[in-house]
Amino acid sequence: MSSAGPQLVREAVQASPLKERSPLAHLLHALNQPLTGLQCSLELAVAVLRPADQYARSLREGLDLVSRIRVLVGAIREVADLQEIQIEGSVAISLDELLRETVRDLLPIAEAKGLRLGLKAADSLMVRGSQTVLNSVMFRFLESALTLSRENADFHVGAEAIQQHACVTVSWTPGALPESSPYSPPELGLLIAQAGWEQMGGSWTQRQTEHSKTCTARIPLVSGPARPGSARQGDER
To answer: How does pLDDT run across 152-162, given as a tens digit for each residue?
Structure first.
């Protein structure tokens, strides 16, 4: 794959949007806008008698707001579920194996969008956490990024050990902004993945330019049993 060449646009590095408030507080804040809009729409609808077409328009607007509310409530429930599951005992998990399995599960989505998916993961990236939470977080992370990617573009997934941390990096070319952005289902999926990752003691950073977006999730490594070929790196497409 050819290199991208000099970047002439300014890169924006974004820290976690959850640092100043909890994940639930962040989502509840986002929920306030459509709830306020729905209340205003209903108040206007009953304020005075109006022609039937205006009532129909108010109903359509209300249904659209209810749909947005349902998406946000679903995200709130998912974050709450992750917090409850996190109570279960943590175990040593092979992050690289989980990453490869998740990529295989999501290959049909990548192929349907014509994405050129490249995976490069170091072996023996052992981390500690809830198996259920990490499975869910990894799937949400990759699925959301694939959904947000532009069709027929490059999509890179990598994992390596850096300063005693396992680092998972996903990079893609963003497609058109989805409806209800920034609170569309795939964008909320990234937020949920970030919340779960940070809940396990990891960190999350984002970098966006005019033509690409990269999310990097880090989590401390733990010692674990060595596996054959631990020095080998896999490169799958």
So the answer is: 999 999 999 99
